[in-house]
């Protein structure tokens, strides 16, 4: 648990990302927080109480990135994992056999696979609902429900859940509300302040921001949850390595600058795509005709850099996916470069066809992670790709 009365919490967001939780207070005053590349630590004597004893359990560099992300999310404890899926694994590991989870119908394929192919074997059950529909969420709750799990915006259909309203439903029924905040990052959205109990990030994406490491985070603001998660990370042994922790710390320092540019470019790209004859639908929460535009403005300070669109002629998809001068055909998101992704065969390939069809993940759907290049270059690429 970190001290919410410390001077770190008094800094504005743009300062907090640069200085982190500890700044240069430890060791020799290094401005770049050191990489403690060690597996174990000298113990001064029998019965001594030392903070770090073995790096699977804890490491100073990992502690700093955990505390920094918790600070940005306004939580009291953070946990860093080897990937976003490891973070989701830790959250589902809080549950017990027989428990039930209300989960989004439109969710990252890896999370769907974990729920359906791993945890169902341990007698956990899941009900998929459109979590932008509050009545659907409430109606899915049973006496065995222990958690509501959501992404907002969702991947890849960009649905938005009213986090505060779902938090009220969750508290009424005594449930844990877990929110994947990867798409907006803590710069644009802070689910804990809206009533969520747990926040998840794929730190691989916007937090690191450079497509050069994989990481995952879980942030809470509850001492009991923190103790349970600490046991899980120690036991499952999937804590983030010192070097990857340092890479995330380095990436986080430019988070506000990058997120502003991602959003600025994404809005320009979305508006351009609306004018293209080949494009059928554009899904971007920052467009005023998005059904959850007003909810997004209420609970977030921005709309992020992710969007999806469908094309009228599926035969053009191979041409589009070749990419362009700056747009790269690759699986992933949240980095400085613009990536174009085909959910059908990449991020959501593990989801059954009937489920994909139900939520709109068809052969016509394409996802864009809009980067921080010059917007005109991105749009010129799209003009050529969408001829």
Characterise this structure.
The protein is an alpha/beta fold and 387 residues long. The chain has 2 domains: 246 residues, Type I PLP-dependent aspartate aminotransferase-like (Major domain) (Aspartate Aminotransferase, domain 2, 3-Layer(aba) Sandwich); 130 residues, Alpha-Beta Complex (Aspartate Aminotransferase, domain 1). Helices cover 35% and strands 15% of the residues. It has a 7-stranded mixed β-sheet with strand order 1-7-6-5-4-2-3, sandwiched between helices. Strands 8-9-12-11-10 form a 5-stranded mixed β-sheet, with helices on one face. Helix 4 links the parallel strand 2 and strand 3. The termini are far apart. The mean pLDDT is 95.
Rounded mean pLDDT is 95
Question: Helix-strand pattern, N to C?
Answer: HHEHEHEHEHEHEEHHHEHEHEEHEH
> Which word captures the global form?
globular
Regions with little confidence, pLDDT below 50 for 5+ residues: none
Quick one: CATH superfamily of the largest domain? Type I PLP-dependent aspartate aminotransferase-like (Major domain)
Helix segment tally: 14
Q: How much is the radius of gyration in Å?
A: 21 Å
| Total strand segments | 12
Largest sheet, in brief, is:
7 strands, mixed
Determine the strand fraction and express it as a percent band: 5-15%
Helix content: 25-40%
Number of domains: 2
CATH topology of the largest domain: Aspartate Aminotransferase, domain 2
Determine the N-to-C terminus distance: 54 Å
Task: Specify the CATH architecture of the largest domain.
Answer: 3-Layer(aba) Sandwich
CATH hierarchy, class of the largest domain:
Alpha Beta
């Amino acid at each position: 648990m970190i001290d919410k009365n410390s001077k770190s919490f008094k800094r504005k967001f743009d300062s907090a990302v640069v200085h982190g939780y500890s700044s240069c207070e430890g060791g020799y005053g290094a401005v770049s927080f050191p990489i403690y590349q060690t597996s174990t630590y000298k113990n001064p004597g029998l019965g001594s109480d030392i903070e770090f004893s073995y790096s699977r359990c804890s490491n100073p560099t990992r502690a700093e990135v955990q505390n920094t992300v918790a600070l940005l999310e306004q939580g009291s404890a953070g946990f860093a994992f080897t990937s976003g899926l490891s973070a989701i694994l830790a959250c589902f590991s809080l549950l017990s056999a027989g428990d039930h989870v209300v989960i989004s119908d439109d969710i990252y394929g890896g999370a769907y696979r974990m729920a359906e192919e791993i945890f169902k074997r341990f007698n956990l059950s899941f009900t998929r609902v459109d979590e932008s529909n509050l009545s659907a969420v409430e109606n899915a709750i049973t006496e065995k429900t222990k958690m509501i799990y959501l992404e907002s915006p969702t991947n890849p259909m960009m649905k938005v859940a009213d986090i505060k309203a779902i938090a009220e439903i969750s508290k009424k029924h005594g449930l844990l509300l877990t929110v994947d905040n990867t798409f907006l990052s803590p710069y644009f959205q802070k689910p804990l302040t809206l009533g969520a109990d747990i926040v998840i990030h794929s730190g691989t994406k916007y937090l690191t921001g450079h497509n050069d490491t994989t990481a995952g985070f879980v942030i809470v603001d509850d001492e009991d949850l923190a103790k349970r998660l600490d046991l899980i990370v120690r036991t499952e042994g999937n804590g983030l390595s010192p070097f990857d922790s340092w890479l995330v710390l380095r990436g986080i320092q430019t988070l506000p600058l990058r997120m502003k540019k991602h959003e600025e470019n994404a809005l320009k790209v979305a508006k351009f795509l609306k004018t293209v004859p080949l494009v059928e639908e554009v899904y971007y929460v920052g467009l005023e005709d998005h059904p959850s535009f007003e909810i997004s403005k209420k609970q977030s300070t921005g709309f992020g850099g992710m969007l999806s669109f469908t094309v009228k002629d599926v035969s053009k998809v191979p041409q589009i996916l070749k990419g362009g001068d700056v747009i790269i055909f690759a699986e992933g998101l949240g980095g400085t470069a613009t990536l174009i992704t085909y959910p059908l065969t990449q991020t959501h390939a593990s989801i059954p066809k009937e489920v994909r069809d139900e939520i709109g993940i068809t052969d016509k759907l394409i996802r864009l992670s809009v980067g921080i290049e010059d917007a005109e270059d991105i749009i010129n690429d799209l003009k050529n790709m969408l001829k």
